[in-house]
Amino acid sequence: TFSTASCVVPLSRAASRPTETLLHSMAFSLSRAAGQKAFLTFCVVASAAAQEKPLARTFVAGPVETYRVRVTLQVDVHDVVTQTVGEKTYVRPSTHGAEALLDWTSTRKIDSVSEGVAQITETLTPTPGQCERQRTSDPQSQKLQDSLNEVCSLLKESKTLRYQERPDGLIRDLPADSTPSLGEESPPLLTLWLRRSLRPSLIFPPLPFHPGARSQRPIVAPSGMSGSETTEWIDAGADSPAASLHVVQELSWPEPPGKSGFSNVGGQAPGKTTFFADSSTTVSLLDGSVTNATRTASRETKRVLNLVEGLPQPPEFSSKLTIVVTIRRIS
Q1: Bridge partners of residue 331, in order along the sequence
Q2: Mean pLDDT of 248-256
Q3: Which of the four pLDDT bands, split at 50, 70 and 90, describes residue 44?
Q4: Pick from 13, 70, 57: nearest CA to 288
Q5: Is 101 exposed, middle or buried (0-12, 13-18, 19+ CB in 10 A)?
Q6: Residue bearing the bigger pLDDT, 118 or 57
Q7: What integer pLDDT is reported at residue 118 of this predicted model?
């Protein structure tokens, strides 16, 4: 049992936000911020009844938090190459890939607080000499590498971000250029996920807080999109009081018919796209900060290609972009 004068406390059920869809969570709706003194503290209310309520933060203006953030980008493409010799058609698998790695130091300062909402300034200082990879002899892999290098070069820029953060961790007014576009087809779920996951903070769920507390809900969206979200509080097992929030999100939707070069037999979509995210974030119950986090997400598209003469089944194409974000507090 912990008690402090200024701390992150469980929200009352009346004050907790309603359950949101995955898309809404990525949209960063927040209320305005301004006002007060300096640092963030956190507490667990002593009574069992209080522990059955969702956690929230109380911001107080002041101290500076410093984090090390590392991002890994990886793309993999699986295709087939056909070659016709005389009357025979030969097919062989074709695999291409690329990877980029970068990191930076993130410094967060709570400038002011108004009605519980914090005005935050976050300064990003990248490590020099990143996004430089040796060229490959595979033209397709090199094209993928060039695309990742472009994203990497935008991510490694020094930035100062100013935004507002609500007691439940939702963010508003985050600058649009905080995260580059990943060039996804709509909906850009991976770009939205990355935009929020790069911040060294946590969205507190409306789930009542106690180790082992777990919830699962379906996600249904337009255009045949469906999936689920699972959230669970886990005892972090650290020397100091801490808890980890484990969130798994999965969505899939059919590819629209009519794509050139892909099978659309009977008007059926030639494949599907899957978004998958698995995030584990540990927060200190003493000061409310994120102590470490590992956040992984991927977007994979699988499509059925047109039937190749001589093959019993049409070949398949798949492309997958995976992003891993690790965050570690250093001071």
Answers
A1: none
A2: 90
A3: very low
A4: 57
A5: middle
A6: 118
A7: 94
Alpha helix (H) residue ranges in 198-245: none
Beta strands per DSSP E along the chain:
39-41, 58-60, 64-85, 88-114, 117-126, 159-165, 171-172, 214-220, 226-235, 242-254, 271-284, 290-304, 316-329
Query: Nearest CA to 22 among 293, 202, 243, 247?
Result: 247
Q: Which residue has the tokens 């969505």?
A: 251
- Per the CB < 8 A criterion, the answer to whether 289 and 283 are in contact is yes
- Interstrand relation of 271-284 and 39-41 (parallel, antiparallel or unpaired): unpaired
Q: pLDDT band at residue 259, thresholds of 50, 70 and 90?
A: low
Q: Which DSSP helix (H) or strand (E) runs through 25? A: helix 22-25
Q: Is the alpha carbon torsion for 148, 154, 157, 162 positive or negative?
A: negative
CB 159 within 8 A of CB 167: no
How far is it between the farthest Cα atoms of the chain? 83
DSSP string, 36-73: ---EEE----SSHHHHTS-B--EEES--EEEEEEEEEE
* Structure token pair of residue 64: 């500076």
Question: Does the pTM of the predicted model rise above 0.70?
Answer: yes
pLDDT at 260: 53
- Distance from C-alpha of 60 to C-alpha of 79, rounded to nearest angstrom: 54
Distance CA 307, CA 316 (A): 10
